[in-house]
């Protein structure tokens, strides 16, 4: 899962990034309004942590533009301004939660998991597709109730595709979602092909009734078979 941290305080931003990376999230950052605006409308993120008080603009304006463009994002506002007006404005513009600074990292992690459960897991702790069950809190995958051993990137690819089952996912989009935005500098996608080949083999061996289908010239689609 990929998270964008929009926060101008470098020390706090680094602390948040390190804590999220320990939880195995792919994390990108934006230290100001301009950088955040560019990233939000070029790349895709599963969750956004947004400080509304930025040195070159107000984060609520980012929320407003996202709403105007119909781009639904999972947004948690993190701000030192703990005013009712800011909370109401952020929530009305589409934010999913509001966390006032200072906060405990454990609470931030819990809020992120809660937002993702609501929007990608139908409120459930686990994700099910066919006879495959993913346990995001423990990074476990089961086929017909039996654990299968996946490497970290294999797991992240499966998690990404399950959350977008039956949708065509371009190779570039998948790479950015699992490896981060810097992947757009890669010369080729051989590293993706290798991971998907291994993942397919493990799913088939375990008796999974889902398949990662290649759409040649475009990307991949996870389907039931």
Automatic annotation (TrEMBL):
Protein keywords: DNA-binding, Phosphoprotein, Transcription, Transcription regulation, Two-component regulatory system
Source species, domain of life: Bacteria
Domain Response regulatory: 2-116
Domain spans labelled OmpR/PhoB-type: 124-224
GO BP terms, alphabetized: regulation of DNA-templated transcription
Gene Ontology MF: a single term: phosphorelay response regulator activity
Record protein name field: Transcriptional regulator
Organism for this UniProt entry: Xylanibacter rarus
